[in-house]
Design a protein that fits this description.
Strand content: over 45%
Structural class: mainly beta
Oligomer: single chain
Largest sheet: 10 strands, mixed
Helix content: under 10%
Distance between the termini: 90 Å
CATH topology of the domain at 38-157: Immunoglobulin-like
CATH superfamily of the domain at 38-157: PCu(A)C copper chaperone
CATH class of the domain at 38-157: Mainly Beta
Number of helices: 1
Radius of gyration: 25 Å
């Protein structure tokens, strides 16, 4: 009785398979990790406009754990739309312009604060007032979406009390209030 030989693959078929297998084993053995950043939103708050029907302003801090990142959009079920803006001082006058996105370098946070980058929140639910909070949804270029609650304050009121970790030039961490 004659035994049939197992099917043979041509030499052209072996190298891609072997290379792919070798690359997979090398990656697993080296413990390679993904460089996809993660984003953590903190210190989110909204200041109402002194004029009824005008947009509120919003602020926050995003810590990025990983590589460079870009904030693409912020939305809220409590607002018609949210625009990203930048305040700038030129010739002694403050001006404001919309920005499409906000990017950061590795290891640096994305910060929106009074006098700089901020959100303009149009069509905020009129039933909301000081002491309430709204949900903010953040969409990034690489990181997974993030959600935060933003405390609402009245026009002219101080920012809600929050703390920020700082490191002095000796490498000592301390908590300083952010205003």
């Amino acid at each position: 009785m004659r035994q049939e030989a197992a099917p043979r693959y041509g030499a052209a078929m072996r190298p891609p398979f072997i290379l792919a297998l070798a690359a997979a084993l090398l990656a697993a053995g080296c413990g390679l990790r993904s460089t996809v950043p993660t984003a953590e939103v903190s210190d989110a708050w909204v200041r109402l406009s002194p004029l009824a029907g005008r947009p509120a302003a919003g602020y926050f801090r995003i810590e990025i754990n990983g590589t460079r990142e870009t904030l693409l959009e912020v939305t809220s079920p409590s607002a018609d739309r949210i625009e990203l803006h930048m305040s700038e001082m030129e010739d002694g006058r403050t001006s404001m312009r919309p920005i499409e996105q906000a990017s950061t370098e590795r290891g640096r946070p994305i910060v929106f604060e009074p006098g700089g980058r901020h959100m303009m929140i149009h069509g905020l639910d009129p039933s909301l007032g000081p002491g309430d909070a709204i949900e903010l949804n953040f969409r990034f270029l690489l990181a997974a979406p993030a959600t935060a609650l933003a405390t609402i304050v009245a026009a002219g009121d101080e920012a809600p009390h929050r703390r920020h970790r700082t490191v002095d030039r000796n490498g000592t961490e301390r908590n300083d209030p952010l205003l």
